[in-house]
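Handoff note, outgoing to incoming analyst
You'll be picking up this chain. Sequence as last confirmed:
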Amino acid sequence: MTNFTDGKELKINTDVLVVGGGFTGIKAASEISNLGYQVTLIENEANIGSQKEQKTLVGLTDEDHKCLQEMESRVTSDKRIEILTKTKIATIKGMPGDFSIRLSNNDNILEKKVGAVVVANDFSVNSLNDKYGLSLSDNILTQSQIEEILVSDKEKLADKTVAFLVGLAQETNPLIMERVMRTVIDINEIDGTATYIYTGNLKVASDGLERIYKEGRDKGATYFKLQEMPKISQDGKIISYHDPVLRRDIEVSPDMIVVDDEIYAGKNNAGLSEILRVDLGAGGFLQKDNVHRFPVYS
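Most recent structure output, in case you need it:
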């Protein structure tokens, strides 16, 4: 018979350390604070939020920017959130619920006890047009550029046929796939438009992607899963490929071609990987699951 009387009581620290002062980190800190927990938000640079260079904030309306600024204002005045700039993790010991962390803040060392660490670093976006052998022009656009057009001058797309190249130059990220699918839906709501998506390995298993994919198809989007890279004229006006279903060569002439982006982790992730003992996955991002940080060791 198992005796449970010798069990030791574990004291769980509920304070949270959020790493990263971009809008991802600010959003995380805001939501955690709203749940009633104390948060320490650290940023390696001198500024946070709108004062940082935000290369990944594309396709946002004025209302979106206003919402971000309001959230930033709430975080900076939130008594449950301590903000430390020019600060990074020096060492970490312990396990979930009981971490002892030493923070390097300029020339000072600060010691913190927290129960959880949330890594919310910024990421970078890069266009893959070179890998498709294409030069950007008025009719050859990046995913970020088409998103900006939808915000600033979407009627420019009226009566246009837009072809998307996704996951053909390299394996795509679910976040990029979601951006493409949402863009396709928005374009198909404009009069006279048609969208064709040429993709390699179409993955819709991530949260909500299958629903977005179906919504896009219901609104007229046509997806083609290709086994090899299509041939594209240098001016982007002709796309040639072999259709494995029809078993014949197809040639189309879109008004615009949109090439997908790639996203990769910020430069700080490699150092965090060593400190946190969490391996890096695709694109230099920290792995979601890691045996070193499970709350119970076996």
